[in-house]
Amino acid sequence: MVANLLYLLAHLDKIGLSCDTWYKIIAVLGVLGRAAVIVTFTLRTYVVWAQSRIVLTSLVMLGIATVLTDAIFVPRQTCASTRGDTAIVDIVRSLLTVVFETLSATLVFIRSLQAFRKYPNQHSFTYFLMQEGAVYFCVVSLFTVATFVLKVSTKSSYLHDLLNAFTLPLSGLLTARFLLHLRAWNKARTSTVSCTAALDVESQQHAPGSRSHTSISSVGIQLVSATTSINSERSDWLTTAEFGEDPMLKSKEFR
Fold first, then answer.
1. Model confidence pLDDT, tens digit, residues 62-98
2. What distances in angstroms separate CA 149 from CA 142, 154, 159, 208, 217, one per listed residue?
């Protein structure tokens, strides 16, 4: 969105420096934004597939190729039309973006569908993952595919540049939306685990026939054990807390 604002101001000659210089700055911001989205969805797909190295390698290679073609496009950004000798680079960049988004979304959907068919639950992590993935794919990927089709089928740069101006901001917003929802899910999950442990300890403390001194000792030990278990779980969870977890594992927790 910042890049789009700078683009408009540069086009109207309302800011310092030359128009071409600002276009290059805007292009750099676009590369950084796209790289951030690619990293996020690469790691998300990686952890969803139980940290598969094959999945990680495939997406990393595609992601690097996409960012590199995007970076190659930066020095040639000018206020004039960028079709000419940069048309092929632009088309390749769009094609790689479409392939990356489609592959990532397909892999996440397949894994989520496997988990959902085995443990159907509309309040599970799997359902949340499928819902967020569907929203992103339906909104952003449609823009990306439409931009690619327009670049291939039309000579005018106005329409596909117009769609391209909305694609990256939408992608960033939906990525941030996914991460915020995931953090909220993790927080609710951690609170549920803590409350369950506390209730189990309290029920055993007030169990009939239990001795007071052994009860206090037992409660202390169980509290330490529960706290250690939660902290250990959170320690493992924090490694993937920003990107999710394998839904085949998560589905078992919410059966």
1. 999 999 998 987 887 776 655 555 678 778 888 898 8
2. 11, 8, 11, 73, 70
